[in-house]
Design goal:
It contains 12 helices and 13 strands. It is an alpha/beta fold. It has 2 domains: about 210 residues, Rossmann fold (3-Layer(aba) Sandwich), CATH 3.40.50.720; about 90 residues, UDP-galactose 4-epimerase, domain 1, CATH 3.90.25. The longest helix is centred in the first third of the chain and has 22 residues.
């Protein structure tokens, strides 16, 4: 499919569009000529950053506000043809310490969005940003879309609920919905204030600052890492494909590496920093799932999607981005 022509002049809403995934998607959609609306809360804990969309700020309609604000959601959704629902509470640990806030954003917020689509944009499609956290500990690897969902934290439970809500609204109200179960992603335009989510990106900051990266335990667990450009291509493919409605797709990289080797690669690429092994904190160990390697062959078959950015090349480009634009991301660390 010619994605440029598909998205030209298409009315698109991105929730969380000032954050990491959303802003990279917005930049690509703008290049294709889409009419973009962004809804973002700019919550200080999360990744919303006006600089993320600075090159296209004059071509984007920005609505600043919370996903749970019904009037703002109605304003954002009316007349849209496609919704990329990316806004979320994304910290595993915070979901355990503040579970009701996670429910408010990831469950109630998603239902309010779906209700608005039903009422004000009944013909619009939805692409939902799911997560590997929905699966939990694996019964087999690589994990395909048929694997059961056994989340180990509140975040995973509520993100899985959001996926199911989307399919309920598809079956009951005709809203075409697709879910991408996104793996560990990295790249430009991520928040660099803390390590509550997006740990690879946070480790880049620690290394660039000459700090110490802590590896819990031995760091042998295998992970897939996807560059944000590959995630963006998956969003675009899911939003355009006739095969995608009603489907779930795993994303992966095809070349998993251990957590320890990921840390070593960051230190080598930045040329600074160090690492140390420390015991697992209980709150982290309780929700650790071990190896996670995804089978993304379904996305390849149906969406013609495969990852293109090799890990080391993506890491080098990411470090170069933050070196050039550090002033816009190196705000005071928060814990």
């Amino acid at each position: 499919m010619d994605l440029d022509s598909h998205y030209r002049n298409r009315k698109v809403l991105i929730t969380g569009g000032l954050g990491f995934l959303g802003s990279n998607l917005a930049l690509d959609l703008a290049a294709k000529g889409a009419e973009i609306t962004i809804l973002d809360s700019l919550h200080h804990w999360y990744g919303g950053n006006h600089f993320n969309i600075e090159p296209i700020s004059d071509r984007v309609r920005l609505i600043s506000g919370d996903l749970r604000d019904v009037e703002l959601v109605h304003e954002a959704i009316e007349g849209q043809e496609l919704v990329f629902h990316i806004a979320a509470q994304t910290s595993h640990v915070d979901s355990m310490t503040s579970p009701l806030f996670d429910v408010e954003v990831n469950c109630r917020g998603t239902i309010l969005l779906l209700e608005a689509m039903k009422e004000l944009a009944p013909g619009a499609r939805l692409v939902y940003a799911g997560t590997r956290a929905q699966i939990g500990k694996l019964d087999y690897t690589p994990v395909d879309e048929k694997h059961g969902a056994f989340p180990v934290d509140i975040y995973g439970v509520n993100k899985h609920a959001g996926e199911l809500y989307a399919f309920v609204y598809m079956n009951a109200h005709g809203i075409p919905a697709t879910s991408l179960r996104i793996n560990n992603s990295y790249g430009p335009r991520h928040q660099m204030k803390h390590g509550k989510y997006g740990i690879l990106n946070w480790f880049i900051r620690l290394a660039m600052d000459g700090g110490t990266i802590r590896i819990f335990g031995e760091g042998n667990q295998l992970r897939d890492y996807n560059h944000v450009d590959d995630v963006t291509r998956a969003f675009l493919a899911a939003g355009a494909s006739d095969a995608a409605p009603g489907q779930v797709y795993n994303l992966g990289c095809g070349d998993p590496i251990s957590f320890r080797e990921m840390v070593k690669a960051i230190i080598e690429t930045t040329g600074s920093g160090r690492y140390e092994h420390v015991p697992w904190p209980k709150e982290r160990e309780d929700i650790e799932v071990g190896d996670y390697v995804a089978d993304f062959s379904k996305a390849t078959r149906e969406l013609e999607w495969t990852p293109r950015v090799p890990f080391q090349k993506g890491l080098e480009e990411t470090v170069a981005f933050y070196r050039e634009h550090q002033v816009h991301y190196w705000s005071k660390q928060i814990s």
